[in-house]
Prior knowledge:
Layout: H1 3-24, E1 55-58, E2 61-65, E3 81-85, E4 88-91, H2 97-116, E5 128-131, E6 137-142, H3 155-162, E7 165-167, E8 174-176, E9 182-188, H4 190-194, E10 219-227, E11 233-241, E12 249-255, H5 262-265, H6 273-278, H7 295-313, E13 323-324, H8 328-335, E14 397-403, E15 433-437, E16 453-457, E17 465-466, E18 470-472
Parallel strand pairs: 14-17
Antiparallel strand pairs: 1-4, 2-3, 4-18, 5-6, 7-8, 9-12, 10-11, 13-18, 14-15, 15-16
Amino acid sequence: MDMKAINKAIYLFICILSAAVLTSCAGAKSNAMAVGGEVTGVRGTAFGEPTPYGMVAVQKGSLRIGLEDNDTLWGVGFPLREISVDGFWMDQTEVSNAKYRQFVMWVRDSIIRERLADPAYGGDETYKIEEDVEGNPITPHLDWNKVIPWRKANEDEERAIESVYITHPIDGTKMLDASQMNYRYEVYDYAAAALRKHRLVASERDLNTDHEVAEGDVMISKDTAYINDEGKIVRETITRPLSGPWDFLNTYIVNIYPDTTCWVNDFQNAENERYLRLYFSNPAYDDYPVVGVSWEQALAFCRWRTDFLAKGLGQNAADIQPFRLPTEVEWEYAARGKEGNPFPWEAKEVKSDKGCFYANFKPDRGNYTMDGSLITSKCGIFSPNSNGLYDMAGNVAEWTSTIYTEAGVQAMSDMNPELRYNAAIEDPYRLKKKSVRGGSWKDPESMIRSAWRSFEYQNQPRSYIGFRCVRSMIQDASGVKNKGKR
């Protein structure tokens, strides 16, 4: 394709995008002519964002992030900086086993539906929708209104259903085949696509007219993934010349089943087999925070939750604010509460005058049960902070979206600070560190402070790390005015 054709394609893409933006302004007046020739503006209908289920609003504001003094116990220095953040919604509690299990069951059911429509398993085409209501062909997708015949399946249907289960070779237990629980999703990198250096027309890459912009290819990297003939996930980062907007669409396939073996791998020479067998699957732990989930799996959950909400609302996922992991700074800002406290509570101690602990952590050497729990506790049994958030200290530490560096916030902007790096599979392991916040049930008092920073590698699941989701706020919730510095 020559440059003229490319420019024409870009122009058409921009026109379509602009039309979509204008169309999305619900209720905008179509008459651009004003009375008397005055410019009065094209206005849309006022938008009121409803409170997302299970989330609370954290209003925009500013805070001095970090600790003023070096940690006296560990001798660790913490980066300090005055920052400002926009408002966002945050899960009141950490994502529970029950909520994450809904994700796993959705993946299981989607696999079964795909196979029920597959000729190899009977080929029931009614499990897929391939035409719109007017009979026009559309991109085939699963019909979730079509019920899976769990109890009255014929021979082909039973084979499809049973194909996602395996039998334990020793005790004969029937269980879900965790290796098949793979979730495929795509993410468009709007930030990378917007960079001026990524313009296809060379003259647009530098607005300084004193510079002569050299023609030539712009190299980009994009992530892609596929399942090979052996049924294994293959991840690749492709570097190639930029050819168009599709080059910023990244594809991921993630096995999303939690690593239940983390209970024995994290604590060797300990009798934790009961948690390996029961913690994720037994209803007794439904309301406990999910663990054994890597950073990559947490991202996949956020994407699935976005698509799940969009389908429930009858909208396109691109039309709603996506669920995501909080940035490291958003997390600390939310944890400190409206007063900016060292802990998520007002007191400087970890227990009340009556001896009641404010969080689930390790209060003493080896005495995990002083606060009432040996391992994790149910989500939300301790009092919330002033933002209405539970368990922002202890219980489980939490993944953030931010890459971990010693410089921390000092290497970031002072407005909505973030430092993100999507590590390629071939990158050195040290580049795959992600910031973890909040401390956990196994950590001492010093490590559950809101400013405490730690890290874990993005592919490493732990029995003491979970996560919660956030969503960016389109406007301050309920019209609440910003109260300034916190």
